[in-house]
Amino acid sequence: MEQWVALDDGAGSHAPIAPFAVAALARFGLATACDQAMWKAEYKTDRLLKASPSWKALAWQEHGLVSLPCEKEQNDVLVWSGTFMHGLYGSDLPAVRAAGIVNMSAKDLCELLIDSTRVKEYNKLSLGRSDLMVLQGNMEEDGPFGKSITKVVRSESKPPLVRKTMQLVSVLHATELADQSGYLLVTRAVTEPSELDSFDAGLRSEILMGVNVIRKIEGEENRCLMINVNHIRSPMVPMMIARKIGLTAAVNFIAQDLPPFAQENNRPVGNDANFWEDMYSTLT
């Protein structure tokens, strides 16, 4: 049974149930990213995992600092597809998991994804992202949502070949992993009744589940492992091609969108962005 959960009390503070709901979302997101039984590797990923013991261990490591795979495999982006078996809203839509090495420190990457003012630095199709409501804004001090940044954001983008604007309103929760080996960001669509009319001219899509697990790499201060889960509903994407678009977008977010940003910040770029066709990741 699906139920609505209030995030705020209408008077400028969070609803009493909100911290419990967000904590449950974070647990579910991390469990989803680590659930091997849910995911089926794509053909090239399956071949790589069978041939590379280092990547096989890295792809599903749940705790502690990670070790880099061998040098020739560090530019690979691994992808899986899967479905949620709960039978609830969105379970008919495909989900995508991706993993790859990013040439930024775990902390820098986490801060980049949290900061709404910086989205255009790595997302060329973004029209902007704004913070509608900040429930907690400090990952260093404990609060109702733990040591986290928790906020509701609205993002808009203009995908190619589509006349209307894509709009997303989501709760974003970012926190450090319990063993301090990295960071967890989870995102989930929310609805703000007072804002509904503003979506009439656009095309409203939903992040049913977005997960970014960012893990530190042992001995590599300016590199990290990124594991993403994308589960998105968008009226502009026909069901017959949703999986293909999702896979391509998930790969591009690691292989193409982030490396140019890292290069601008004087970090070496190892991913070959030209290898992937130009598709847009809707997570941001």
Radius of gyration: 18 Å
Element order, helices and strands? HEHHEEHEEEEEEEH
Total strand segments: 10
Q: What is the approximate shape?
A: globular
- List low-confidence stretches: 265-284
Helix content: 10-25%
Largest sheet: 10 strands, mixed
The helix count comes to 5
Oligomer: single chain
Overall SS class = alpha+beta
Mean pLDDT: 79
Portion of residues in beta strands equals 25-35%
End-to-end Cα distance = 29 Å
Q: What keywords describe this structure?
A:
globular, alpha+beta, ten-stranded mixed sheet, single chain
Task: Give a written overview of the molecule.
The chain has 284 residues and is of the alpha+beta class. Helix content is 24%, strand content 31%. The protein contains 5 helices and 10 strands. Strands 1, 2, 3, 4, 5, 6, 7, 8, 9 and 10 form a 10-stranded mixed sheet that branches. A hairpin with a 5-residue loop joins β6 and β7. α2 packs across α3. The longest helix is centred in the C-terminal third of the chain and has 26 residues. The protein is globular and about 55 Å long.
